[in-house]
């Protein structure tokens, strides 16, 4: 009897890990952007145009907002249906999975909106209000401009460019990806998962 329960727990664990492996790396990335984040720093090869990098980030943020809003509504809709399984004397895996996905999509949506806000904020000085302009013109003084720190910092990296250039023509092999992950402190599994999805 104990061996049967142990094998059912281990098969349940394997099933759970398979489900978690299906979560997209872009969702993991967006979930990592919390409300406390005040700036984002992007390292890219200098062969790329910085405007293209910024545009790609904006695309990730906008598509993440649309996608996770849609999935959040779908997950919330499924919660009452899966809660009906609570009457069964078994673990309600569908309910807990949908509950986890609801929270996950909510976090990814928050991260998408935060990333979009960080990318949209330019590192230009704040513009004074029209009322401030009128008051300042009366006093014949120039309006003071507050300097704002950049919220999106793009850093071209020659080291990254060299690592990519040394890779084969067919694309980045696993050894190169591992080297890049070591150099830039990235999660190898997430990067490999993203490469396999693309």
Automatic annotation (TrEMBL):
<keyword id="KW-0472">Membrane</keyword>
<feature type="region of interest" description="Disordered">
    <location>
        <begin position="121"/>
        <end position="150"/>
    </location>
</feature>
<keyword id="KW-1133">Transmembrane helix</keyword>
<dbReference type="GO" id="GO:1902600">
    <property type="term" value="P:proton transmembrane transport"/>
</dbReference>
<dbReference type="Pfam" id="PF10173">
    <property type="entry name" value="Mit_KHE1"/>
</dbReference>
<keyword id="KW-0812">Transmembrane</keyword>
<feature type="compositionally biased region" description="Basic and acidic residues">
    <location>
        <begin position="124"/>
        <end position="145"/>
    </location>
</feature>
<dbReference type="GO" id="GO:0006813">
    <property type="term" value="P:potassium ion transport"/>
</dbReference>
<dbReference type="InterPro" id="IPR018786">
    <property type="entry name" value="Mit_KHE1"/>
</dbReference>
<dbReference type="GO" id="GO:0005743">
    <property type="term" value="C:mitochondrial inner membrane"/>
</dbReference>
<feature type="transmembrane region" description="Helical">
    <location>
        <begin position="78"/>
        <end position="100"/>
    </location>
</feature>
<protein>
    <submittedName>
        <fullName>Uncharacterized protein</fullName>
    </submittedName>
</protein>
